[in-house]
Amino acid sequence: MTNPSEIPALCDLNASCAALDTLRSWLLDLLCQLAYQEGDFVLSSGQQSSYYINCKQVTLHPAGSVAIARLILPLLPLETEAVAGLTLGADPMVSSVSVVSVYENRPIPALIIRKEAKGHGTKAYIEGPELSPGANVVVLEDVVTTGQSALKAVQRLTDAGYSVDKVIALVDRHQGGAELYQNAGLNLESLYSINQLQTRYQTLNLDH
């Protein structure tokens, strides 16, 4: 991985106003430089993998988070009333999308889904503003592998009376997540595929 100081500075690419095509290419490079690693890894699903993608290195990067939000916003259906995701991976994404949506004159609330119910107070699974029954919510995910994380968020949201039919991911590893969502009546849209990421990684020659 490359040191964050080696990533183009904001004066070279202003994530808040760069053209979306430029931003998409720059964000892919950022993912390759900061998030993607090759080696021997065990994923949260228990699967063995020859590579690992730690998207938090990018979703918590100041320019990276703005870039992600600006690229996700156009993918949200017009009727979207909130974005949501399962803690911890989706937390920076839903927060940045919500904040940037205000500057795009399209304010969209953020919801964070707990893995376990809060142990005190309301004992809620969902943190954030309460929406009207049937509100349309889009679930965000950083990396989709088997799809179980986002599906758990969808289940919590539907249990709360909300409507969910779309998941947006930063990277799709193409390991069954899309098929799982399709069987559950959900559409998956990702900013990047694992093939795009690995091809760009090799082009940048970051393993040397």
Automatic annotation (TrEMBL):
Family stated for the protein in its record: Belongs to the purine/pyrimidine phosphoribosyltransferase family. PyrE subfamily.
The protein's assembly and partners: Homodimer.
Catalytic activity: orotidine 5'-phosphate + diphosphate = orotate + 5-phospho-alpha-D-ribose 1-diphosphate
EC class of the enzyme, as a word: transferase
Positions bound to 5-phospho-alpha-D-ribose 1-diphosphate: 114-115, 118, 120, 141-149
Pathway: Pyrimidine metabolism; UMP biosynthesis via de novo pathway; UMP from orotate: step 1/2
Species, as recorded: Limnospira maxima CS-328
UniProt-recorded name of the protein: Orotate phosphoribosyltransferase
GO molecular function: magnesium ion binding; orotate phosphoribosyltransferase activity
Signal peptide annotation: none
Keyword line: Glycosyltransferase, Magnesium, Pyrimidine biosynthesis, Transferase
Taxonomic lineage: Bacteria, Bacillati, Cyanobacteriota, Cyanophyceae, Oscillatoriophycideae
E.C. no: 2.4.2.10
Cofactor dependence: Mg(2+)
Residues that coordinate or bind orotate: 145, 173
Biological process per Gene Ontology, one example term: 'de novo' UMP biosynthetic process
Functional description taken from the UniProt entry: Catalyzes the transfer of a ribosyl phosphate group from 5-phosphoribose 1-diphosphate to orotate, leading to the formation of orotidine monophosphate (OMP).
